[in-house]
Amino acid sequence: MEQNVLKEEFIDGCLELTLNRPERLNAFTPELHKALRSALEKAADTHACRVVLLTGAGRGFCAGQDLGDPDSAPGDKPRDLGASIEQFYNPLIRLIRSLEKPVICAVNGVAAGAGANIAFACDLVVASRGAKFIQAFCKIGLIPDCGGTWTVTHLIGEARAKALMLTGVPISAEQAASWGLIWQVFDDESLLTEARKLAQQFATGPTASLAMTKRAIHAALTNELDQQLDLERDLQREAGRGGDYAEGVAAFLEKRAPNFKGR
């Protein structure tokens, strides 16, 4: 097994995860999949972890699947690439989407193929000015995975999604932000600093209600208005019973910063 394919650092409520195969542009192997999934599952079960920050080591975020990996390379017989998606990628996307705390992705360079779509699955995406996003699947005779056909289409619409995925043309961080694929763009040297500032904001925030907000936004993609109104009612009832609501109101009335416990 490769050593240190994922760096983990826990600081003041934030679990910072760094994909660490810079010599391969942090491309995914089974070992990296297992390490990342394990770290996210641990974050889900740890109340002290209030936010996750995902980024990549070196000059890029993630080049997607490592095509040099023996399990991915074409052979004499056709490969069942769906098995890898079922075993690794789909559980990863579901875990990121369902995690009951914010997941920030700091894209520090190229994000290609699965690397781009994993980033888009996160709650907030910030990128360096030199970052590029590439739906590279058409270049090797495959289709976009990691939920990309769903996420990208919902974010920017059918016409733009088809243009990106059928041509494989890279788009810049600024273009991605202007289209609504990501949130903000920062200078390369300040990306991680700004991402950590955002993470610390969430690490001291009302984690439980943020998780409910995340759940409601996801549901809005398929709910009718009446369903969404009922869901908002139910989630607001749940949030109002939490200690963070009482603390937030008290802090507002006392004109001080709230001390949220994430419950």
Please tell me about this protein's structure.
- The protein is α/β, with parallel strands linked by helices and 263 residues long.
- A hairpin with a 2-residue loop joins strand 1 (6-11) and strand 2.
- It is globular and about 70 Å long.
- Helices cover 46% and strands 16% of the residues.
- The strands form 2 sheets. The protein has a 6-stranded mixed beta sheet, sandwiched between helices. The chain has a 4-stranded mixed beta sheet with strand order 4-6-8-9.
- The chain has 2 domains: 6-203, Alpha-Beta Complex (2-enoyl-CoA Hydratase, Chain A, domain 1); 207-253, Orthogonal Bundle (Lyase 2-enoyl-coa Hydratase, Chain  A, domain 2), CATH 1.10.12.
- It is built from 10 helices and 10 strands.
- It has helices at 30-45, 81-98, 114-121, 148-156, 158-167, 173-179, 191-203, 207-220, 225-240, 243-253, and strands at residues 6-11, 14-19, 51-56, 60-62, 103-107, 110-112, 124-128, 132-134, 171-172, 184-186.
- The chain starts with 5 loop residues before the first strand and ends in a 10-residue tail after the last helix.
Give me the Rg, rounded: 19 Å
The outline comes out as globular
Query: Going by CATH, what is the homologous superfamily of the largest domain?
Result: 2-enoyl-CoA Hydratase, Chain A, domain 1
- Which blocks of ≥5 consecutive residues have pLDDT under 50? none
Secondary-structure-based class equals alpha/beta
What's the arrangement of strands in the largest beta sheet?
1-2-3-5-7-10
Task: Give the domain tally.
Answer: 2
CATH architecture of the largest domain: Alpha-Beta Complex
Distance between the termini: 38 Å
> How many β-strand runs?
10
- Rounded mean pLDDT is 95
SS summary, helix count: 10
Beta content? 15-25%
> Which class of the largest domain in CATH terms?
Alpha Beta
Summarize the main sheet.
6 strands, mixed
Please name the CATH topology of the largest domain: 2-enoyl-CoA Hydratase, Chain A, domain 1
Helix content percent band? 40-55%
Taken in chain order, the helices and strands follow as: EEHEEHEEHEEHHEHEHHHH
